[in-house]
Amino acid sequence: xxxxxxxxxxxxxxxxxxVELHNAGYTPVIVDNLSNSSIKMLDQIEKIxxxxxxxxxxxxxxxxxxxxxxxxxxDINGIIHFAASKAVGESVQNPLKYYHNNFFSLINLLEAxxxxxxxxxxxxxxxxxxxxxxxxxxxxxxxxxATSPYGNTKQIAEEILEETANxxxxxxxxxxxxxxxxxxxxxxxxxxxxxxxxxxxxxxxTQTAIGKRDKLTVFGNDFDTKDGxxxxxxxxxxxxxxxxxxxxxxxxxxxxxxxxDVFNVGTGNGYSVLExxxxxxxxxxxxxxxxxxxxxxxxxxxxxxDVTKSTNELNWKAQLGIFEMMDSAWKWEKYLQENxxx
Length: 342
Description:
By secondary structure, the protein is an alpha/beta fold. It contains eleven helices and 13 strands. It has a domain at 3-184 and 234-266 and 305-319: 3-Layer(aba) Sandwich (Rossmann fold), CATH 3.40.50.720. The protein has helices at residues 12-23, 41-49, 63-72, 88-93, 95-112, 149-167, 201-210, 237-253, 273-284, 308-314, 322-338, and strands at residues 3-7, 27-31, 54-56, 76-81, 118-125, 171-178, 180-182, 216-219, 231-232, 234-236, 260-265, 271-272, 290-293. Helix 1 (12-23) packs across helix 8, helix 3 (63-72) packs parallel to helix 5 (95-112) and helix 9 packs across helix 11. This is UDP-glucose 4-epimerase.
């Protein structure tokens, strides 16, 4: 079966995708510089799939190392590209880091594979829609001016990929625009492992519930929504991982829509931050200590996706609901308490 390069494969979404690729009969090969993940995730993956995946540690921004990898691994048939800096707030404070990491890594990969037939799946984001003109937002919606350097890297990367696919015959590319990944593998052996202060909601929730943090601060409850809290399309990370496998399969058989395509990857349902908190309390049996703080600049009021295209053309649909998301995240947090990974 095909060998698939997974960049950032020891990270949160990457590690789950490595598992799902293996389950689907592929051979995943990981490249990661471990700047935002732990080498111990390889052992965790091995506990799930029975073998330790092939791993290479280097920075994709180093074009010499990328070319060396391509030369030494001629049997790679596809790439799933996760490796990127991804914290919105940090990108505002340090935009050059984001433009350097996210563009150089992508361009070096594309340059290195320019002479080789390759199926390429890109980790994009619903941030490209900004505050959508309509909901649920579909793939035909206009791409809005980004509210952060991180979001801007996703928009520009999509443009780079589309123009590359059009210019070179060997590339077939899909960009997956996903919403808010949460949860953990059902084994509780892999999950979100934030280094330092979490950047996402759910690790804050679970860390507060288990006592690592005194309280959870929710940013704003005066938004124009049903309960005043921001609304998001939360998707279980295992469903998201399976979407990447579906994208590789579509590229392998030939996407009838052409050499470049985009797909929303979400559930199609919008949950407010308060609803997410209540769902976690129900799933875990833990009462959460949270307070409401001021809004954060640039926060979108509400966004959730129309996933009709993914259902019909990608042959993929989310299967796991908000309870499974919260329950699995809590089991992972409890696992980490007993089995620290640093």
